[in-house]
Amino acid sequence: MLNRFKNRFKNLKQKLLVSVSGGLDSMVLCDLLLKSDLDFSIAHVNYKLRKKESDFDENFVKNYANQKQINFYSISHDLSTYNKSIQAKAREIRYEFLYKLTDENKFDYILTGHHLDDNIETIFLNLIRGKKNNSFLGIREKHNQLLRPLINFTKDEIKKYALEHNLSWRDDSTNKENKYERNKIRNLIIPVLNKVNPQYRTSFKNLFEISNLEFNIKNRYFDLDLSKFFIENKSGQLSSNKKFWKSFDVESFELEYFQRFGFFDKAELFKIIRSSSGKSIKSDSYTILSNRNEIIIHKNNLETIDEVLLNNGSNHYPIKIDLVFSQSASKPSRNHICISENVDKPLKLRRWKEGDYFYPNGMIGKKKLSKFFKDEKMSIFDKQNQWILSNYKDEVLWIVGLRADRRNLVKNGKCIRVSI
After folding, report:
1. pLDDT digits (tens, 9 = 90+) for 32-46
2. At 418, phi and psi to the nearest 5?
């Protein structure tokens, strides 16, 4: 096992952070790293779930780190009275701590002790929970900064190594309880699977390899070929011509491209690609809008700002906009306007409202903003993101970056110069 490990990670010369619980897997991982002369530090989280046992775990890992002269980091977070999903919360706390340490100490990788048997259990969890995509990928050996060096080793191999090298570790008594889904799979389902097929690990290992190969090929196609059919605008929205997507039917795997934005229902995607302008569908993170001959993908705003009062001078929120008194006005442009010093103040940036109208510079009469937006062929997203500069009475002064209202414009002499 040591030789396999060394051959696989002989070039891993970066600065490493290892998540260590004190259990068999993480202690074997530490020993393999030490014997491979790799540079690593240890991080431990005490969740206080097993009272004194949890404290013994922390002291065990701390003493090991001191004995081996390894940098040690730990936090305590009491989850003993937590009523919801303890494992999910523990994972959230653990990874938040690990990434915080990584940022503060410039670690290159975070290592965990996940192994092949963990991976098999994860497949069953994915199926039970109805995971919508990549259910058979399991736990990947490397994903961004996360590295799982033991993912191709079995639990039996890990235990055999520990016994042969006289390693010490802590046993988690709750692993024998069937309180959690993973424990039920490990203690109830896996033994039955082993009776049906004692070589089940080999079968799953082949499944992981095939799934990862398909995943990589598909994403390479998505990134190199399908991504070419999207154009990103200055607001970060992606747009693509409907004509291209209409060439695929509802079963086409090309529609899986949209899974990266949280859209898994191919039938729903098939409909939106063929729908009339204005129709939209939403995932947790994105919205897809049908807009004339194109579809637009827009990241959902977690924070909505409807109105902000502006100060004289530079304003940096929600956009950079400057209000400066000037002795010489100039003609309006897309980047600035000059307005009367007598305008009702304070000025404000706001979103447009139904019924808003303005007197467009260079035109006779007034016009509703909704009509102006339609004439400009603005999408729903464009309208939602458009800022309006108004006076304190809510009268429109400028559709920012597009068209000024002529009523308060000054073209020479003293003015307030508003620029973006």
Report:
1. 999 999 999 999 999
2. -110, 125
In whole angstroms, give the CA distance from residue 43 to residue 54. Answer: 15
The rounded mean pLDDT for the chain is 91
Provide the sign of the torsion angle of the four alpha carbons 268, 273, 275, 278, taken in this order. Answer: positive
Q: 257, 300, 260: which is closest to 281 by C-alpha?
A: 300
pLDDT tens-digit readout, 332-389:
999 999 999 999 999 999 999 999 999 999 899 999 999 999 999 888 888 888 999 9
Domains with residue ranges and CATH for the chain: 2-200 (3.40.50.620), 226-299 (3.30.465), 307-419 (no CATH)
Residue 405 in contact with residue 361, Cβ under 8 Å?
A: yes
Q: How far apart are CA 243 and CA 229, in angstroms?
A: 11
Single pTM value for the model: 0.65
Contact by Cβ (8 Å): 322, 315: yes
| Rounded (5°) CA angle 17-20-21 | 155
